[in-house]
Amino acid sequence: MVWLKQPVSGGVLDVRPRVVLAGDPGLFPLSDLIAFLGQSRWTGVLRLVVPGADRTLALKDGEVRWASSDAPTDRIGEVMVRLGYVTRTKLEEVLRDTPPSRVGRALVERGLMQAHDLWKVVTEQASEIFHAMMLAKEGAFFLLDQDLGDQAVHSLNLSMQSLLMDSIRKIDEMAHFRKRIPHARLYVVKKRGSDGKLEPEEDQVLALVDGARTVGELAQHARLNEFDITRVVYRLLEGGFVSVGQHPSATAASVPVQPATPSAPRPPVTPGALDERKVLNIFNFIFREVRNEVSRHGKLETFMQAANAGLASGSLSPSPLLNGLNFQPDGSLPEAVVLAAYAQLSPSLGTEPLASFRQALSDVMFFLLFQAGELLEKSADEELARRVKELLSTLDAQ
After folding, report:
1. What is the C-alpha separation between 345 and 140, in angstroms, rounded?
2. Best exposed site among 6, 99, 341, 367 by fewest CB in 10 Å?
3. Is the CB of residue 53 less than 8 Å from the CB of residue 74?
4. Are 22 and 143 spatial neighbours (Cβ–Cβ below 8 Å)?
5. What is the C-alpha separation between 265 and 314, in angstroms, rounded?
6. pLDDT tens for each residue of 361-383
7. Where do the domains of the chain lie, and which CATH numbers do they carry?
8. Distances in Å between the alpha carbon of 364 and those of 140, 154, 312?
9. Residue 76 in contact with residue 173, Cβ under 8 Å?
10. In what order do the strands lie in the sheet with 19-23?
């Protein structure tokens, strides 16, 4: 139902939020709308209501800053369990005395999860919500012209284009995989060992196959999402390394999911020389500002441990510019080392290496703000976000 106001007027309202577009995803594909929003660098909120779920994407300049959902399968705890970072028993134990909104921080504080792994889970959760919205064929969507305010500063920063292309690829490929692996409850049985020609991810999964684990359980052990584990098992099926069936192998023995282990640090890069100091200096100023705010609240040691562990894990950004780095005691990244890495790697960073450099530092910034938000009170976190927004504006003004 659409309400029409008489006399007709529009385009002059200053009151926000306001609905600027509404429709049926079954008749107007959300992928087309999202592609347009990314290209036009839209800022606002896209909300999708379907039977059993209300999902929202918040966009800032065409990039995804946060995603939310009230669907039980989209809860952060459920994503943690699916990816094998925590067992359901441990999750339920923590939830007995912790509100759902703080379950991630509680798991980190109890040593059940690494801080950088929590960041990976949060980004995976946003990706899954995005993908679920792309699959919608019923319900209604609403596009809201809404200012995100300071909340957009210390949230996520996910490329809309990358999420869209990844989602389209998953839809196409999963339809092919489902012909042989219709669901994740099938058991996987090893038929032969590796021939030395498999990809590392395939070797990892094949080593975990014991005849007692389902596709979903292999995903937990390998820390892979449903699409990635289905893709790997499909390749192993095609190569004759495994088979799948409704029942476990008669000789199989069940093995519990082990706690997540920290990823190994990546090797350092070889120094070179390049003067890209302006961008780095502004981000280092922001990093120090975040570090100092956390320090004022007595949480510095926990924060710095999480920050350096995140850098060492390689999970903050896919950019090789961050390999081998550690934060200095004042919270900044070592200028000479970072600029040397840029000098060496800029030829491999595409047609806009400076933009790639800025994106890598931005990825680090969002992780630090995420960690600070887990440690600070709401008022302090919001004030920090306001200051960081002002500092970022100096970079945008260049």
Report:
1. 46
2. 6
3. yes
4. yes
5. 7
6. 988 888 888 888 888 887 888 78
7. 19-174 (no CATH), 179-245 (1.10.10), 277-396 (no CATH)
8. 36, 11, 12
9. no
10. 19-23, 140-144, 44-50, 53-60, 63-69
